[in-house]
TrEMBL record:
Subcellular location: Cytoplasm
Organism field: Pseudoxanthobacter soli DSM 19599
One annotated Gene Ontology cellular component of this protein: cytoplasm
Record gene name: cheB
The name this protein goes by in its record: Protein-glutamate methylesterase/protein-glutamine glutaminase
Taxonomy of the source species: Bacteria, Pseudomonadati, Pseudomonadota, Alphaproteobacteria, Hyphomicrobiales
Pfam families, alphabetized: CheB_methylest (PF01339), Response_reg (PF00072)
Stated family: Belongs to the CheB family.
Length: 396
């Protein structure tokens, strides 16, 4: 689970407030969450509804940038409402909220596969844990990041196309931006991109490590659909920022995508080729050598990059074990987790790939990885799986 970093301000950079719709059958939850956004001028709560049917009927009128959608509601729950919302207002960022239960985890993963941008594990309103500082920081950060990306998407689509005269010569004047999406600089500066990609390792790939966060379950599913048939000779280890129970369900979904055995890693387990290992929620997953074997070690150490599980510990430990035979991937997600670990992989002789900005739900983690200058590829999500297959086949 990701928590907002201390350097991220609670005031959004958008000149126009991010428009938020809250959909939850609990009036208490709607009131508490609504007050959080009301206290920040960077947000505007444009609608609040007690079931999915009301949200579907109102979405074209209220025009939210981001919807916080409860999954269990009377008359129409979130899973039924989600595809109708996205059909009526494409491009809306939907964050689903569900309980920390197996049923809630399964519903959340299903919602992500239906097009939700992200999820939040919802604490209990009955025990007042809904007021927790961690939940508040996590939710506001996600709404801010996803809202800003939605605005940038609107800006690209709504901005007038340049006339032929405006495209001639380097001193041509660019068209004025569409007024609907006037954006000041983002809270975190956009990563400076390297001028060239690094040459990949020529050593055969013996293992793959992948890190992801916001938008990760959908991205991982696409990668493993392509990778599954080709990964018989290598293990793949994944750290996705998720709480307990959710990582169990994620492993089951990845197993179906890949057609391979996927499971949460357990302490002391021997790593074998052809299997997918997912870091369990609330534990860091590392690997080490034990004689001729590579084994998993789970750690209860403090969060790294405000995350637990975190990507950096996995990447750094895998770099020490596999060296030049390691291939690492950083997919969509907030923050910078994975960048230091990716640098460790390349320093040990391995290869790094990052997801590109356009296909990322949030280009935080892969953007930070790309900005290090050590990547051998910065690719759309649909090209990452085939690229991994090519590496496994010895094609660079």
């Amino acid at each position: 689970m990701t928590v907002a970093s201390p350097e991220t301000s609670d005031t959004t950079s958008s000149r126009e407030p991010i428009r938020v719709m809250i959909v939850d059958d609990s009036a208490v939850v709607r009131g508490i969450i609504g007050n959080w956004f009301a206290g920040d001028p960077g947000f505007a709560v444009v609608a609040s509804h007690f079931n999915g049917r009301r949200a579907v009927d109102d979405v074209t009128n209220s025009k939210p940038d981001v919807i916080i959608l409860d999954l269990e509601m009377p008359e129409m729950g979130g899973l039924d409402a989600l595809p109708l919302i996205l059909e009526r207002k494409p491009g809306t960022a939907v964050i689903v909220a569900s309980t920390l239960s197996q049923r809630g985890a399964e519903a959340s993963i299903s919602a992500l596969n239906l097009g939700a941008a992200d999820y939040v594990p919802k604490p209990s309103a009955a025990t007042n844990k809904i007021n927790s500082a961690e939940f508040r920081a996590d939710l506001l950060q996600k709404v801010r990041e996803l809202g800003l990306k939605a605005r940038r998407r609107i800006e690209r689509t709504a901005a007038p196309r340049p006339t032929p005269a405006a495209t001639v010569g380097v001193a041509a004047t660019a068209p004025a931006p569409a007024p609907v999406a006037k954006l000041a600089p983002q809270p975190i500066a956009k990563p400076r991109m390297p001028e060239a990609l690094r040459r990949p390792s020529t050593a055969p790939v013996r293992a793959i490590v992948i890190g992801s966060s916001t938008g990760g379950p959908q991205a991982l599913s696409k990668v493993f659909t392509a990778l599954g048939p080709a990964m018989a000779g290598v293990p793949v280890l994944v750290t996705q920022h998720m709480p307990p129970t959710f990582t169990t369900i994620l492993a089951e979904h990845l197993s179906r995508s890949a057609g391979r055995d996927a499971r949460e890693g357990t302490d002391g387990e021997i790593v074998v080729p052809g299997r997918i290992y997912v870091a369990p929620g609330a534990r860091h997953m590392l690997i080490t050598r034990s004689g001729q074997d590579v084994v998993i070690r789970l750690s209860d150490a403090p969060p790294v990059n405000y995350c637990k599980p975190a990507v950096d510990p996995l990447f750094q430990s895998a770099a020490a074990v596999y060296g030049a035979n390691l291939l690492g991937v950083v997919l969509t997600g907030m923050g910078t987790d994975g960048a230091k670990g990716g640098q460790a992989i390349v320093a040990a002789g391995g290869t790094m790939i990052a997801q590109d900005e356009e296909s990322s739900v949030v280009w935080g983690m892969p953007g930070a990885m790309a900005a290090t200058g050590v990547c051998s590829g910065i690719l759309p999500i649909d090209e990452i799986g085939p690229k991994l297959v090519a590496f496994l086949g010895g094609r660079r």
